[in-house]
TrEMBL record, chain A:
One of its GO terms (biological process) is response to zinc ion. GO terms for cellular component: ATP-binding cassette (ABC) transporter complex. Belongs to the ABC-3 integral membrane protein family. It comes from the Bacteria. The chain crosses the membrane at residues 12-34, 41-60, 96-114, 161-179, 199-232, 244-265, 277-299. It is found in: Cell membrane. Keywords: Cell membrane, Membrane, Transmembrane, Transmembrane helix, Transport. Its main location: membrane. Signal peptide: none annotated. Pfam families: ABC-3 (PF00950). It is a multi-pass membrane protein. InterPro entries: ABC_BtuC-like (IPR037294), ABC_TroCD (IPR001626). This is Manganese/zinc/iron transport system permease protein.
UniProtKB/TrEMBL annotation, chain B:
This is Manganese/zinc/iron transport system ATP-binding protein. Belongs to the ABC transporter superfamily. It comes from Thalassobaculum litoreum DSM 18839. GO terms for biological process: zinc ion transport. Coiled coil: none annotated.
Amino acid sequence: MDADWGVEFLQLSLAPILIGTLAAIACALPGNFLLLRRQALIGDAISHVALPGIVVAFLVTGTIAAWPMMVGAAGAAVVAVGLIELIKRLGKVEPGAAMGVVFTTLFAAGVLLLEQSDTSGVHIDVEHALYGNLESLIWFDATGWSSLLDIGALAGLPPQLFRLAIVLAVIVGFMAAFWKELAISTFDPGFAQAVGIRTGAVGFALVVAAAIAAVAAFDAVGSIIVIAMFVCPPATARLMTDRLGRQVAWSVLFATTAAIAGYVFAGYGPLWFGSPYAVSAAGMIATVSGVQLGLACLLGPRRRRTGQAAAPQ
Amino acid sequence: MSLDSHIELVSDGGYAVETGGDDCPLEVRGLTVAYGEKPAVFSVDARFPSASMTAIVGPNGAGKSTFLKGALGIVPRLAGEVRFYGQPLKEARRDVAYVPQRASVDWDFPARVIDVVMMGLYREVGLFRFAGSRHRARAMDCLERVGMQDFADRQIGQLSGGQQQRVFLARALAQDAELYLLDEPFAGVDAATEHAIVSVLKGLKAAGKTVVCVHHDLSTVTAYFDRAMLINMRKQSEGPIAEAFTSETLQATYGGRLAESQIAELRLGSC
């Protein structure tokens, strides 16, 4: 009985939990700085423009292999960020409005493109893009706990797991290497430039890191979770501490617990209430993340702060 | 002084950067900065000599802060040349400390006082490295110089305006520079902070450092500074207080917005 439970867990739950956790952390890490720069919405923008990027990548390459899709989505993210900057400067509108215009337009263009082009027989659907399909990422090769040490069996893990692990390593490396530059240019861009930090390059690198995280996570878990994970864990963490390093650590903890608890609640929660059906894991992870934020707003030690916002320049 | 040194400078400018003969902390020629199509600073020449303390004075929106930002390349220059100790900024960053306006940053940022001061050690810590206990000790020394050592672990949003300004000054001290450019360091601070900042700046000058402040309070210019630059988009005057900060230059800069009696009071307060 115990062994059966173990095999079932390994086959059905281990990979989704790990993938959800890696995706949540990969988004939450750059999300901390996006939030402090009041650019949290950029995650939303990036995850929406991934759709036209993927469609264009498919039309160009004719395959739905993962890497061309990711390159297409990342390319679309860069184009979107460029367009947002352009509209901000030429149109002299506030950043939120520029992001709103760009990502809705590009997302709609992606839907039209998908409809018009001959993608019949290929599985790209909008629902999948939004909700992801965490539950389908299963590990057939697991036969018992010993599979965790069996290289052959491990190779059968869903490829999303390895991609996200690589992406997370890249993001952790970037943030560790340029921690000072990120912190100083986020807090005081004028001072940062005066000491020789290339603030434009740092800001762009941060957005690229966020785009990489969004695209890798999007592929595995859909865009709802991406949007939630960029904003909720960092915002929750901000209410727990007044130190940047600790905020980032708290955000990792919140991302991890939301991913695990969300998956478990989605799978078993409805049973506890007498319903035989599971609910979407991605949706439940995002919901748990929102509940964490709500609790921190009510109970977080740093929820009442006196600091004033910067004056408009 | 101005005519002679200017001729010398122009001839210097042609070929003399490498000779090392020019050690003027900050020299600006023809600086022009525009926001959109409206120039904020137009063709300003200025020279800030070593071990001097200069107030940049002018009405609101006259381009005082923009002059500093343009000199530092924080806002793009339309035209003009800027030399720090005879070199472009990127060769001289170690010698230049900049204190932006206090209101230009978000004080809700998750950082403690000590974290902000250690930002001043950025160049010293170096790429891909983290600050160590040696840097922390240096930052604590700088906090002590502005009387803020007891606040090292306080979140910056919990400080008063004057305390925040002192933290910014401590960060500049941590840079251990030769030239200090400060944007409105006395704006919205309490009397004790104003006194503390003035004595730190005068100490810097006494140690041979050069100080340039954007300054809005005309009544304290003569008490705090030995030089002045009056600006209203164009430079109106520049030089020692006695020459540059007169009723004529003030009248020209403020365009009749100051009454003669106000100006008379300012001059009374001097010397």
